[in-house]
Design brief:
The chain is of the alpha/beta class. It is 31% helix and 26% strand. The chain binds S-adenosyl-L-homocysteine (SAH). S-adenosyl-L-homocysteine binds next to helix 3.
Length: 204
């Protein structure tokens, strides 16, 4: 599947029916999701691999990984309502994704979710609850050797120090994340935030 085709296909997926600010529920826009997935594909980290999407929401990254030929895909989210939309989205595109309700803050990720080869994720950035992204990074490093994650632009110093001795950042891909007015505290119709996709490779 070509990048443009993937992007157009992911565009068809339904979003959160009633997004919750506290959980930072923002669906990754199709162009950014496709860019992350295609990049991981080109690096050999999707096709034939066991892929996990932490904080999968409505499933855009998980379903995209399945479309690109992952051997198996697991999508994990704390919110059952989001998972219900994700299951419908997976069925719409005839993809096989296992969805699991779990809170990544509880630890024991490797036992509860199982080992996989690659994590793809767009976790909360910690805008509502400081450090909300940390348990996602911990969980990702517990389940997979390679992680592609979306962060706020300028997060490399944080990501490097937080994962020191555990992982190294092997790549950075810039991108934009247009956020439509979703919550009461949003003042603009569309606000574009600069983001970066970082690839973290476990070092131990
Ligand atoms: N990855 C999806 C959704 C991004 S929004 C996408 O790219 O479109 C962040 C997601 O993280 C939400 O779906 C939210 O429900 C989930 N989430 C927030 N806190 C969580 C936690 N502690 N454990 C698991 N999922 C969580």
């Amino acid at each position: 599947m070509k990048l443009k085709h993937l992007e157009m296909t992911l565009q068809r997926l339904a979003g959160f029916s009633r997004p919750q600010a506290a959980l930072e529920q923002y669906q990754t826009p199709a162009p950014l999701a496709a860019r992350l997935l295609y990049h991981a594909l080109m690096k050999g980290d999707i096709e034939g691999k066991r892929v996990c999407d932490l904080g999968c929401g409505t499933g855009v990254l998980a379903i995209g990984a399945a479309l690109l030929g992952a051997a198996s895909v697991t999508g994990v989210d704390i919110d059952e309502k989001a998972l219900a939309v994700a299951r419908e989205n997976a069925a719409l595109l005839k993809t096989d994704v296992a969805f699991l309700a779990a809170d990544v803050r509880e630890g024991g990720c490797r036992e509860r979710i199982g080992a996989c080869d690659t994590v793809v994720m767009n976790p909360p950035f910690g805008a509502q609850k400081a450090h909300a992204d940390r348990p996602f990074i911990d969980c990702a490093l517990a389940v997979a050797g390679v992680t592609y994650s979306i962060f706020n632009a300028g997060s490399i110093p944080f990501a490097e120090s937080y994962t020191a001795q555990r992982a190294e950042i092997t790549e950075k891909i810039g991108g934009a994340f247009p956020i439509r007015r979703t919550f009461a505290f949003h003042t603009k119709d569309v606000q574009e935030i600069e983001v970066e996709i970082l690839c973290l490779k476990r070092t131990r």
